[in-house]
Design a protein that fits this description.
932 residues; mainly alpha; 8-stranded mixed sheet; two-stranded antiparallel ribbon; 34 helices
């Protein structure tokens, strides 16, 4: 069977997507905890032969208010001028402050899951955060419902999505993901809260305020709006405290107010990463006679603590410890009982992992000592020394067990991981072989054999039977289901096809291959850079600072191409000088002037990139340092920001004009003016003190302009297609698409980043001009352009301030021009804004290669088609390999380092980014296939 090389590239990339999906299925389990529910019978009635009294396990507070202030950083509480009342309570001993550590991912839905269930959420919950599926784990809210203790809720609708039908009354913010809402949502929550003060049928009220988080996403933690929002939250606390005084008069037990954040906020705004400000939040307790403590507690400790205070059984999924200082006014016997109850639960959970070796562990020996002290205390209840010892012993054991269980509850499906990696490695080998075969080889002969397929399938089925019977590894793939049988047959078929491709590709390597055709220094630099970047992914520091790799190699490529161009110019000048001598001084002077002008422009080009690099700090090590974007964002520098935006839009218009006709240029100029007007309307920039009326008409005209730009290029093609007229070879439709993407990006970008768009156009044009001069063959020309533009896209991705941390995603860009949350449009805007560098650089690559195909062979249709085949084939190979190679190596590293301390903070977020980019590359491959 004869197949085309470009079809093989598409096949390999499709198989690679399947293999990575299988790896992610095994590496990112949807839940680390079972959905089993606790029952009142779980309360211990005895300890060894000693009888315990579970009647003392009862509610300690008449009613409780859990106030979650989204993205509340610890240092916000310390701002006394902004939270005066709360700091007064802390100063006079009416409140206590503790520190909570939050586990990644630091996004809302997983954090709510941790607070209510005491379980460690799956890292994949960061993706499910947008959907907020129904909570299946046991929670203290569910246990309160069983006891018929009503809970009311007002705030983020993530709660109502996770706990449908659980709240007696609720008032959710239906646009929780609309980050431009700083005040309205919080005001509505406060109004509903005041109404509940007069109701006495509930035992717990949960309030989740979002305004602080929204300000952080849009303007960062140092915005001038933060103090006002903190004062608003302080006023809410004051109102609740006033109501608590009245409740205290009505009930025999004290009411309780607990204030915390679901996660923190990084210094540059946003969250989702693992920096200290994101993973450490305050816990403020008002109403109980609490005890001060500087100890660091875990966020999952809230679930068992709340359950104990409200007198309900601890959720089955909880692996947290009790926050002992919150039980200061609980009778000693009941405190010891609660500590024993939670520690006993954790011991039972640890038995699932240690089995028969449990009693040999040090923590179990300490547990037996704690029980002896517990028994002694029950005999001598007035002995405070024994009380302190037993509480300290139980606390130490439970904290140790919590950390052990956190590690052990992260279960991987190792069989899925191994199969996914094996299939990825086989695909990578074939992709490399496909890359190095001669570019003249357009077809591959493969001969799949039934005997080989039957042998591989038989081995696979026997391996499955053996693993199911003898292996201790648990895997869903070992279950006898129709889906697993189909998967097994499919894997056997893919392995057979891979083997046949390998046999078909090996004979082609004997011919002159790509490695012998590309001998220039730029080609060697690209090869070395790709290999170095791939190997660097084995180190967490290189992942955190991946931008440094691209900064170095891309700018080195710029420098090497520039020096090569200068060398060619010098050689030309020497040749002209030697041949013409004094007979053609004009030509010699022209060559020298052209070289000097090139050197000056190249110098300005490099200076420009030095400046662009400092527009947005990124990575981890230097991210906290101020940059040009931070300076321009200050209120006192709004004039300079206005100038930078105006210059950026003018620069972009000049860059777009090189691709467009007159009418498109006029529409683009109008669109640039509308972008500036929109930013002027929102108050980001200024124009001689003008304050235009706030209206969406400017954006409506903007969208109409983009549609007109598209139809200017599309309608002539549609007209010729309808009349069946031959269409001339043209890249005008692609040029219009580039123009639309650039203008839309200008609207979505932060104002100071608009300059990056035009700089990307200029950099692409610079690369293409240099490569066209130095490439010795068409194959080398296309290859250099492809890899160079992939690097260029990554370079501007990091210039924009992006990184491998989820916290650097600019959510504000998803809501430009929107009045509410819309999943499709927000997702599209966020994708375009975040991966703008890769998207634009790819479109520019396609545009330049299309123009190159036509200009190489004018009026020679056969030559044009040959050129198109070569371009298409090379682009498909390169675009596939630059994703397949590094990602295959990376998943191997992640699998080997799955127990590394940074596996969830550094390694896993990059997998999510790379998988999303892999999907974008799939779209790019489809565009290349249907374009050429």
């Amino acid at each position: 069977m004869i197949v085309q090389v470009r079809h093989v590239s598409i096949y390999l990339f499709s198989v690679f997507i399947c293999s990575i999906s299988l790896f992610c299925y095994g590496f990112f389990p949807l839940s680390f905890s079972p959905s089993t529910k606790s029952a009142p019978s779980n309360l211990p009635g005895s300890m060894d032969s000693l009888r315990l009294d579970p009647d003392g396990y009862k509610p300690r507070n008449s009613r409780a208010v859990l106030m979650v202030i989204d993205a509340l950083r610890t240092d916000f509480v310390a701002q006394r001028d902004n939270m005066r009342f709360l700091n007064e309570l802390l100063a006079n001993g009416s409140a206590c402050q503790y520190q909570l550590q939050v586990h990644p991912p630091t996004v809302t839905m997983p954090r709510i899951k941790a607070i209510t269930s005491g379980a460690i959420p799956s890292f994949l919950d960061v993706i499910l955060n947008l959907g907020s599926p129904e909570m299946k784990l046991d929670t203290f809210l569910y246990q309160m419902q069983l006891k018929q203790r009503r809970v009311v809720f007002y705030g983020d609708n993530t709660w109502t999505s996770m706990f449908p039908g659980l709240f007696a009354r609720q008032g959710e913010n239906v646009d929780s993901l609309y980050v431009n809402d700083f005040y309205e949502g919080d005001k509505n929550i406060t109004k509903k809260m005041r109404l509940e003060f007069g109701n006495y049928d509930w035992k717990m009220m949960i309030l989740h305020f979002l305004g602080l988080d929204h300000i952080g996403h849009v303007e960062g933690p140092f915005s001038d709006k933060i103090p006002g929002k903190l004062q608003e939250m302080d006023d809410v606390i004051k109102e609740i405290y006033g109501a608590m005084i009245k409740w205290n008069e009505k009930y025999y037990t004290k009411p309780l107010l607990v204030i915390t954040g679901d996660h923190g906020m990084r210094d540059s705004g946003g969250h989702g990463g693992s920096t200290y400000p994101e993973t450490h939040v305050p816990l403020l307790v008002v109403g109980n006679s609490c005890r001060k403590s500087d100890e660091l507690f875990l966020q999952i400790d809230l679930a068992p603590t709340f359950a104990t205070l409200m007198g309900v059984v601890i959720p089955h999924s909880s692996i947290g410890s009790l926050i002992d200082p919150m039980f200061n006014d609980v009778p000693s016997v009941d405190r010891v009982y609660a500590a024993h109850y939670n520690t006993r639960r954790l011991i039972e959970k640890a038995q699932e992992f240690y089995k028969d070796n449990l009693k040999e562990q040090d923590f179990y020996v300490q547990y037996k000592e704690a029980k002896l002290l517990h028994a002694m205390f029950l005999e001598h209840r007035d002995d405070l020394v024994i009380l302190d010892k037993v509480l300290s012993k139980y606390a130490a054991i439970s904290k140790h067990l919590s950390r052990l269980l956190i590690k052990n509850y992260i279960r991987y499906d190792m069989l899925s991981i191994v199969i996914g990696i094996a299939l990825s490695v086989m695909t990578t080998i074939l992709a490399v072989l496909l890359m190095i075969i001669p570019h003249t080889s357009e077809q591959v002969e493969i001969k799949p054999k039934l005997f080989i397929w039957m042998t591989i399938a038989a081995i696979a089925f026997l391996a499955k039977i053996f693993l199911k019977k003898y292996s201790i590894t648990e895997s869903s793939l070992l279950q006898s289901t129709y889906i697993n049988h189909i998967l097994l047959v499919s894997l056997s078929s893919l392995t057979t096809i891979h083997y046949s491709l390998l046999v078909g590709l090996l004979p082609l390597l004997s011919r002159t291959n790509w490695l012998k055709q590309t001998r220039g220094l730029p080609s060697y630099l690209l090869l070395f850079g790709c290999c170095f970047h791939t190997l660097s992914l084995a180190a967490s520091s290189f992942i955190e600072e991946e931008h440094q790799t691209y900064y170095y190699f891309t700018n080195t490529l710029f420098l090497l191409l520039t020096l090569t161009e200068i060398r060619i110019m010098n050689a030309t000048i020497a040749q002209v000088d030697q041949v013409a001598k004094s007979s053609n001084e004009v030509l010699l002077e022209h060559c020298r002037r052209e070289r000097d002008e090139f050197c000056i422009s190249a110098g300005l080009f490099f200076v420009g990139h030095i400046v662009l690099r400092r527009f947005n700090q990124t990575g981890d090590k230097w991210q906290h340092l101020p940059d040009i974007g931070d300076w321009l964002g200050r209120d006192g520098n709004r004039v300079w920001l206005s100038v930078v935006l105006a210059v950026g839009l003018c620069y972009l218009l000049v860059a777009v004009a090189k691709f467009s006709g007159f009418l498109t240029i006029v529409l683009s100029a109008t669109s640039c003016l509308l972008v500036y007007y929109y930013r002027l309307m929102t108050g980001v920039v200024g124009l001689f003190g003008v304050a235009p009326a706030k209206t969406n008409s400017c954006l409506t005209i903007f969208w109409i302009n983009l549609l007109e730009i598209f139809f200017i290029a599309f309608l002539p093609k549609l007209y010729r297609a309808v009349l069946a007229k031959p269409a001339p070879k043209s890249s005008q439709l692609l040029a219009s698409l580039i123009c639309i993407v650039a203008l839309l990006s200008a609207l979505l970008h932060k104002p100071h980043n608009v300059v990056l768009l035009a700089a990307l156009f200029s950099s692409s044009r610079y690369l293409v001009a240099r490569i066209d001069h130095i490439a010795e063959s068409k194959a080398e020309n296309v290859l250099l352009k492809c890899v160079a533009h992939v690097w260029l896209g990554k370079l501007f991705y990091f210039y924009q301030g992006n990184s491998n941390s989820l916290a650097t995603i600019d959510l504000n860009a998803g809501y430009v021009g929107l009045a509410s949350f819309d999943f499709t449009r927000v997702g599209l805007f966020l994708t375009l804004n975040t991966f703008n560098g890769q998207i634009l650089s790819f479109l520019l690559l396609v545009y330049h290669n299309m123009r190159g195909c036509v200009s190489d062979s004018v009026d020679k249709t056969s030559h044009v088609e040959q050129s198109k085949t070569l371009v298409s084939q090379t682009m498909l190979k390169v675009l596939s390999l630059v994703v397949i190679g590094p990602l295959t190596f990376y998943v191997i590293v992640v699998a080997l380092m799955r127990n590394h301390i940074f596996v969830w903070t550094v390694f896993s977020p990059k997998i999510i980014y790379d998988c999303f980019y892999m999907g974008l590359t799939g779209v790019q491959i489809a565009i290349v296939y249907f374009t050429f």
